[in-house]
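User: Continuing from earlier, I have the next pair ready.

Assistant: Great, send them over.

User: Here they are, in order.

Assistant: Folding the first of the pair now:
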Amino acid sequence: MSEISSTDAAALGKVGVLFGGRSAERDVSIMSGTGVLAALISRGVDAHAFDPAERNIAELAAEKFDRVFIALHGRFGEDGSLQGALEQLGIPYTGSGVMACAIGMDKIYTKMIWLMKGLPTPKYASLDGATDLAQVVAELGLPLIVKPPHEGSTIGITKVVAAEALQAAYDVAAGFDDIVLAEEFVTGREFTVTVLGRGKTARALPVVEIVAPQGNYDYQNKYFTDDVQYICPAKLDDATAAEMARLALEAYRALDCEGWGRVDVLLRAVDNKPFLIEVNTSPGMTTHSLVPMSARAVGMSYEDLCVEILKTARLKLVKEQG
């Protein structure tokens, strides 16, 4: 792709890049949004920063933005609440709509829908203060992954290898959520698949394999070290890569996602069976992020990727004309 013309840039209008916000992923969002803002400006787009933690959402209307690029992660930006406000304000936005974002942000509801669609995802249990933790261990086995279902960036996650450690793991996750997700631990390789587009025309970009030190792909390793290896395209046989892409597209469409997203997948070591883990409806766009890496593998620069995503901005609750 080449640089967009001044006419095309002007057609995109005045653009707000939303980043920062009030979620636990604020710091990552600032890194993502800063990159997106610089990329759009470099392409001649009239782009402006907007931090919902520092400015009232009503000011979006006062700014008279023609569209916004959502680079917020986590609650109040990726969970449907902001998308609903933008629908009310009549400001087209990037990414998925209200319902897809709300479901995608809830890992438990996401898994319920995937299972109803016959898509593979690890066995799980929902935990609260009254749950019999011993029964959970008996049903799911060990090890377990325990996490808050409404957070991302591996925040609040614990790997539980002994039954007596489950309570402490629950307490950590419960610090972020009223309900906690306990999930069967799948031993194997870790991958992610970027999806661009909408409906039947959505397409998967090359699969990325994530190789973390001691398999620990935590918050620090994700964003602040260079110790993690990313292999793109992943070293997979053609059939496995195609199946992973197919599942990612089905998972994305099952939630009615659009614009862009990223689906995380584990490949079980014993039989090479892929398992869907979660979908990200507003993925990271930092220098360490995986969506730009997948785009580069097909010759798309970071700047071109940002412009392509921006072009898909639209209102979802108003029927398109024509």
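And the other member of the pair:
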Amino acid sequence: MINSANQHRLRFLLILGTLSATGPLSIDLYLPALPQMVRQFHTTTAMMQLSITACLLGLAVGQLISGPLSDHFGRRKPLFIGFIVFGLASLAIAVSHSVSLLIGLRFVQGLAGAAGQVLSRAVARDLFSGKALTQFYALLNSVNGLFPILAPIIGGFMIKFVPWSGIFILLGVIGFLLSGLILIGIPETLRPENRLTGPVFQSFLSFGTLLKQQGFFSQLLITGVVYGSLFSYIAASTFIYQQLFHLSAQSFSLIYALNGLGIVIGSGLPARLTGISTYRQLSSGIGLCMADAMALLLGAYLHWGLVMIAVLIFLLVIGVGMLLTLTTAIIMGETTQNAGGASALIGLSQNAFGGLSSPLVGLFGTNSLAPMAGLVLIYNLIAGGLAYRVHHQLHK
């Protein structure tokens, strides 16, 4: 079965890349509609940004459920059930008339869609190891990065002709289509002899075993703050470009799509830099993000123009894309068992920091670059310190 999967690597790459794009599908597609939704629901920007946070928290909690369950039951069943519920939740959001209900349903949507994120990483770990695993994650993240390019363009185009609810109807259709794709395109990659045995609840005890591994918790924090950097940008982007620089929803969608291309470029870099040590790549990526954040803070103070700010943000997302591939490959590469549990903890860390970042950016204001840039700088200072500590602990 696994040999068959290796023979169809491209097919696996495309399917897993699509399944892992739950985040971009759930968030980037409706970003251009956020200002419209603020007006229609008669609410505040910070309150509507909680719909991003709710989805991210759902993604985090859902991964903690589907990851260990997949170590027990295999990968396919949690994937299929997750995307059926994702489709149903998306359709329910489309007909909601209360911002509180919308936020609650967004949590359910993230909870269900989490299976795609966590299990795409686990399936890859079932199939590959070592440099091959890093290269596959680089390709997987590159495919995943296509969705931030396409989603806001589609979303920006749709809201010219349909209300915001049409975007969530589309998400419901996508959820059901992916459920069918799982049935026909994903074989079971976790052999029965490699699954956890005993009562189901014991699957969740694997978290404790993983967290006891030297450096594991610090590496989780690193990937979390890197993801926090990404969502600091995502949460602020629509308001920075549309309110600060007065771009239309369609122009914003094009710039956001260009930054998605930056994530694709960055995600693929580790596969091309195999001659450079992982730690050097990691420290270089963190350094790039720190320097970029400081430049953005300067730009906020000096009121730099659109072109300069857009270039700096493009460089930032390249660095973030590179770091996401590296941190995922490092953690999963050092996990020989309980790949679902390890992937779930990655998702928890990433989505928790992502969920924290969205309201923080809104809380400190959306009329300046400074809150976003300051948060990115703080996150990468933390990542740099942790990376240095872990490296020297493991290489004494």
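Worth noting for the second one:
The domain at 8-192+203-394 is CATH 1.20.1250.20 (Growth Hormone; Chain: A;). The longest helix spans residues 45-73.
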